[in-house]
Amino acid sequence: MKKLAQTLLLSLFAVSMAVVPLPGIPDNQVVAATSAKATNEIEVYIDGSQVSFQPGPRQEKGVTLVPMRSLFQALGADISWNEQTQTVVAKKNSTVITIKIGSINAVVNGETTKLDIPAKVIGGTTMVPLRFVSEALGAQIKWDNASRTIHITSLEAQQASQEASKAEGWQIVAFNDDKVLMIETDRSQGSGVVIGPKLVLTNYHVMSSAKSATVYTMDGKKLKVEGIVAYDEEADLALIQTSTELNIDPVLLGDDEMAYKGDKVYAIGSPQGVQNSVTEGLISNIYYDSDKDIETFQISTPIDHGSSGGGLFDEYGELIGLTTSKYEGTSADIGFAISVYNIYGLLAKYENAPNKTPVFMPSRLPASLSGMSDEEIAKLMAKEFGGIQAEEGTAELTDWKVTRNSTDGLVITANIQTSFYMYYAESMAKYSRIWAANALGDLKPLLPEGEKLEIIIYYDQTFGYKPSGIDSSELTSLSDGKWQVRYPVIRAQLKDKGYIYIRS
């Protein structure tokens, strides 16, 4: 999974490969493979040591070919040859490369790749494209035009160099602490990271229902948020713009392809409003949803409500993700972060957007409930308030009904998913209260002035026997010999003041 910027660069490079053998070689130096003098002049170094090829490197149509066995062995790959199919299979760690003599296609880890020049036998030696093989095994290539020398840096050498450049935890925090901000909206609190002079990256769910927002810097400054300039709802990412410049250097973006399961990571955010708290942990797993093109890191780094949109940094101090959610009700630290892979995608979307005017997301609700029928209001409630999100999942709310009268005002009722409530009534109580408070807050501006609103959510279950221990007011005998148990589990009402009752 390449970063978008890397993918674009590689795509452009792939086009140029048909013209030049390696970067820096002008057209007048591209010669045919039959020119022994030119090909013999090319020297190849892997991790600083010269590799002697017999026969030497040669070029065809701008592509450098070298002996297969010598190249694979120098890069640490095991090879096998199938004489019958004229196919070579090279394996190194989790990478498997299959090349068929004379075929324009090669296969890397099950994916077919088109070659500019197929592998071929020259003078009894199997020759393969040097750049394709090297890069397929994770190596980097540089061309020194003056000396006509190819320098290859193996994946192991790159990793060793990166290992040497790792920073201590305190250094990572010192470098990034001021780049992580706390965000307060009219609906919630979260975190964000500085990505530009007036740009802050956060989670979409932090901003999705906000009508106003403020960011807080480490030195106590408050800056007004003008709105969202780009977002990816599927990846849970949003780019917001402040009214004035932050005067804070942006974070350095890392590479998702250099993030591995087991790597140490650091999270900086504002859990429960405790600004710029730091925790450390590991990348516990890496998930990629190919249908949605979303990469997610599972992390053991402790996070909490308010951490959403905070920075996840690797041991080089680079941002590799945004902390976004966690499992609750468990002693295990199971959190999640959206990968920098998707951050690159959002930034590309922003750069290419013709309109960068900051706006808050439009409300999903109508301007007023006046003029709406009872059926229309019931459909609205089912769509926008049809579930209570708890630790264990979502409790569905169904059978919405609406009544109006001069005494009780607007009364909205629904039934809670009985199986979910029976299992999780106690643990979901706080989430039921939050759901009720949000529903009252969202609907209040839509009410005609002075009208009372009441929302009642019932437990409603039918039994083939008469349950005992239940208050008679909550038990009804039905005509078919069955018994109905019905009682309110949420009662939320509002006029001049709000009141919420939760039964658990």
Tell me about this structure.
This protein is an alpha+beta fold and 504 residues long. Strands 26, 27, 28, 29, 30, 31 and 32 form a seven-stranded mixed beta sheet that branches. The chain is elongated. The N terminus is likely disordered.
Keywords:
504 residues, alpha+beta, 7-stranded mixed β-sheet, 11 helices, 32 strands
Please report the number of helical segments: 11
DSSP strand tally: 32
Helix content: 10-25%
- Label the overall shape: elongated
Largest sheet: 7 strands, mixed
Low-confidence stretches: 1-40
Structural class: alpha+beta
Through-space gap between termini? 46 Å
User: What's the gyration radius in Å?
Assistant: 31 Å
What is the strand content? 35-45%
Overall pLDDT metric: 88
Task: Briefly summarize what is shown.
The protein is α+β, with helices and mostly antiparallel strands and 504 residues long. Helix content is 20%, strand content 38%.
How is this fold's topology laid out?
Blueprint: H1 4-16, H2 36-41, E1 43-46, E2 49-51, E3 58-60, E4 63-67, H3 68-74, E5 78-82, E6 87-92, E7 95-100, E8 105-108, E9 111-114, E10 120-122, E11 125-129, H4 130-136, E12 140-144, E13 149-153, H5 155-164, H6 169-176, E14 180-185, E15 189-194, E16 199-202, H7 204-207, E17 213-216, E18 222-232, E19 237-242, E20 264-269, E21 277-289, E22 294-299, E23 311-313, E24 319-326, E25 335-339, H8 340-352, H9 374-384, E26 387-390, E27 393-405, E28 409-416, H10 418-424, H11 429-443, E29 453-463, E30 475-477, E31 483-494, E32 498-502
Parallel strand pairs: 1-13, 28-29
Antiparallel strand pairs: 1-2, 3-4, 4-11, 5-6, 6-7, 7-8, 8-9, 10-11, 12-13, 14-15, 14-17, 15-16, 16-19, 17-18, 18-19, 20-21, 20-23, 21-22, 22-25, 23-24, 24-25, 26-27, 27-28, 29-31, 30-31, 31-32
